[in-house]
Amino acid sequence: MRLITKWFGVFLVYGHEVKEYKLFPKDPEEIASRLIKIRNGEILEEERKFTEHEPRVGERRLSGIGRFREERRVIEIKPEDYGFDRRLLHEALLIAGREEIKSSKRPSHDIIQAVNAIDEIIEAQNILSERLREWYGYHHPFDEHVDGKKVKEIGGGMKSLNGLVNKSAETRKEIENHLREIMEENAPNLTALVGPNIGARLIALAGGLEELASMPSSTIQVLGAENAFFRFLREGSRPPKHGIIYQHPVIHRARKENRGKISRFMAGKIRIAAAVDANGGEFIGDTLLDAVKKRAEELEKRDRSKTKKKKRKRK
To answer: pLDDT tens digits for 184-221?
Structure first.
């Protein structure tokens, strides 16, 4: 006996004759769900119902319920003979395709797109603001800031340009708020540790949350410092001690000599936070942040102690 699965049902065949069969519901969504399971290597319930026959199977996917053996013989089982229209298969394939696209879409994709959009808006803002300030300066050369009322008085394209600058600022704020929501929902530990902006940029630089979680801490530490790293390789300059994580207040407020140490420690905690978030683990973000702060305080106390000892020796 051979077990053969078609898009419309499961068939138990002896020679070229169908002995038993279990048909799928004549519903495109039901068929689509079975097609997805087959693609994912799962065994269908309809297939399990034939295990008592200990059939031969031609798919390794089914080796758990039958004796696997490659079979070159082709047995024709037509859907029309069992009341199935091929248009049903077409609908099911469309549904299965849409579902697989949805499942393959990761939150990291939205995070990366949002970060890129913000960067592009900032670049456009800078260009537009510079043009607005230069144009405005021709009319009011002694004003330090662009006055909205005076812009209206100047009129013409000046007013439209000012509106465009303001609109781009509003759009940027909207995207930043959306980014914060995505980060808090999908990377709560990373967000608690480094904030939504730094966390999102780390994910974008790594290529995804899962990719960030699999990176060595030493690589995470210098993400965003690629130019400095290339100068180190090309010119033999000093290697960078930190990348964008330098923007974290715990690091950039620390003494210069301690920033590298805190960055290394922080990078290790970032890797842990990303790994927990990527696997849907429990919330430990506050604990990780407290550990970083404690490490920074320990280094600060050590430095103060050394300074006091030096002063005593001088006396």
So the answer is: 999 999 999 999 999 999 999 998 999 999 999 989 98
SS3 23: strand
Name 3's bridge partners.
Answer: 12, 57
The answer to whether 307 touches 214, Cβ cutoff 8 Å, is no
* Coil, helix or strand at residue 10: strand
Place of tokens 């974290």: 248
Residue in the block written with tokens 């395709």: 97
CATH code, residues 187-310? 1.10.246.90
pTM (global) more than 0.70: no
Domain ranges of the chain: 2-104, 106-186, 187-310
Identify whether the C-beta of residue 52 lies closer than 8 Å to the C-beta of residue 8. Answer: no
**For the chain, the helix, strand and coil percentages under 3-state DSSP, each to the nearest 5:** 70, 5, 25
CATH topology of domain 2-104: Nucleotidyltransferase; domain 5 (3.30.420)
CA–CA dist 196, 35 (Å, integer): 39
**Domain 106-186 class in CATH:** mainly alpha
